[in-house]
Design goal:
single chain; 497 residues; mainly beta; four-stranded antiparallel β-sheet; 5 helices; globular
């Protein structure tokens, strides 16, 4: 840019042109020329506009930023099929999440459960708050550090998508939505690793008090502990609340199992509390709550599985019926009123271990199962026939839907709490997938969905999580999923559900 003098005729200020600077004069009546430090770089104002902020055209700078900021391969990575090269790591596509947070704990947790709260149903406001319980898996040399954790996760903000200023008029509201997540915990000491934990909440008799929340924890040493964690949950939101030593002790310590187990479930239909537990000997016990806080196990187990009981589910609409999954490859349906303690229905659903099952709360004749070979399936219980007394009474019905997308064992699966077509599935291939069963299967489409080979059309979303063990939908935050793995807890909501 050429040098230009600054003139002040009749004491009036003349607007300065781009690139000029005012200079002090000796007499105040005239200004001398000034040196422009950029004079040799650009010849015109148009060239300045073209060059952008760092002396180069915007297009050139943006292209270099894309190359140099991160050498990222934008293709979809499918665990179990694709492999990372040396030095590569995975990064989530944040544009597909509405919320995404990871929180770590001192020790990993094999199992957890979400606790309903009093903050309202179908809520969509941010930042979100979640209450949960979990049991730790401490190092075997430090087993005395195991604990039952009662947790409050708050400040769970939505993804920052760089909203325009016109969409962000309320600064205080924006600050709240972009708050950092906070994990608060209350600890109950345990003597062993938690294999499985489940929570059950019951409405209070006096509505001035909070609902009562029980947990059932199945330990590696085969004990089953029942705790009342109501005071621990209350303490998060009631300053000054003290947890007494007595409140750290279990209401009941059940010792009917001779081996450890992983199967636990509370009945959703029995007000005073009814609990199922299953062990590696293939035995299933029922424990019933009574007035006065007493818990009585039925010491006569249900038997019929030839191997370990891996999961249990009460029927969502029949208070005397439950289903069990076993490493013998079968799912069995039972009636607790049966004097024989034998299954009413016996179905072969896999040639490998059946690790988990989930009974649909919306369409109660649908049951999902997940197996050790990575396959999961949906079954119509109306097609299952009652067992006979013969040894060959195991039936082999056809699944309503079956998927072998995962290449490692299924570790958890759960129906969406309000949509009977949506399913969350976790697997040993470090993935948590969301599925929409309402999408009809088409052989041609299934070969190449959205340009990705081998991606079923029913597969809505794939979330990567190291060694994911268990996942649950939040019953009061639509589309919110929480999971536990070796790296801690993940909680997210996608734009897909």
């Amino acid at each position: 840019m050429a040098k230009r003098p600054v003139e002040e005729p009749d004491g009036e200020q003349v607007p300065l042109k781009a690139g000029q600077r005012p200079v002090q004069t000796d007499n105040g009546d005239e200004a001398g020329p000034f040196e422009d430090e950029f004079e040799d770089e650009f010849e015109s104002e148009d060239e300045i506009l073209e060059a952008g902020v760092d002396g180069r055209p915007d297009e050139e700078r943006e292209a270099e930023e894309k190359r140099d900021a991160m050498d990222m391969d934008q293709r979809t990575f499918i665990p179990g099929r694709d492999k990372l090269a040396a030095g590569e790591s995975l990064s989530p596509d944040t544009s597909t999440y509405e919320m995404l947070h990871n929180l770590t704990t001192t020790w990993p947790c094999l199992s957890f459960d979400i606790v309903p709260d009093q903050l309202g149903d179908a809520r969509k406001a941010y930042p979100a708050t979640v209450y949960a319980v979990a049991g730790t898996q401490a190092d075997s040399r430090k087993a005395n550090q195991n604990e039952l954790m009662v947790m409050k996760l708050s400040g769970l903000s939505r993804m920052d998508r760089g909203r325009d200023d016109e969409d962000s008029n309320d600064d205080d509201e924006d600050d709240d939505e972009n708050a950092d997540p906070i994990l608060e915990t209350k600890s109950i000491p345990l003597s062993s690793t938690t294999n499985r934990i489940r929570a059950r909440q019951y409405p209070p008799q006096n509505f001035s008090k909070p609902p009562t929340t029980f947990t059932a924890t199945m330990l590696e040493n085969s004990d089953v502990l029942i705790h009342d964690v109501t005071p621990h949950l209350t303490s998060f939101d009631t300053p000054g609340t003290m947890i007494t030593p007595q409140q750290l002790k279990p209401l009941a310590s059940l010792k009917m199992h001779r081996t450890e187990g992983y199967a636990v479930d509370w009945s959703p239909l029995v007000p005073q509390g009814k609990l199922l537990t299953g062990d590696n000997d293939g035995k299933i016990f029922v424990t019933t709550g009574a007035e006065g806080g007493k818990w009585t196990p039925d010491n006569r187990p249900f038997t019929g599985h030839e191997s370990s009981v891996e999961d249990l589910q009460w029927s969502p609409n029949e208070r005397n019926v439950f289903a069990s999954a076993s490493s013998d490859g079968t799912v069995k349906v039972w009636d607790v009123r049966s004097k024989s303690r034998k299954p009413a229905v016996n179905v072969k659903v896999s040639d490998t271990d059946v690790n988990v099952i989930s009974w649909s709360r919306q369409t109660t004749h649908l049951l999902a199962s997940g197996a050790d070979d990575g396959q999961w399936a949906v079954w119509d219980l109306r097609q299952w026939k009652p067992s006979s007394d013969s040894a060959s009474s195991t039936s082999v019905p056809k699944a309503v839907a079956s998927f072998n997308f995962h290449k490692e064992q299924i570790t958890s699966l759960e129906w969406h709490p309000t949509d009977d077509s949506i399913m969350a599935v976790a697997a040993g291939d470090n993935t948590l997938t969301l599925w929409d069963l309402a999408v009809e299967l088409d052989d041609e489409e299934s070969k190449d969905t959205a340009g990705v080979q081998g991606w079923p059309p029913q597969l809505l979303f794939l979330h990567y999580m190291e060694m994911v063990k268990e996942c649950h939908w939040h019953p009061q935050i639509p589309g919110c999923v929480m999971a536990t793995g070796d790296g801690g807890f993940g909680i997210f909501k996608t734009i897909s559900v």
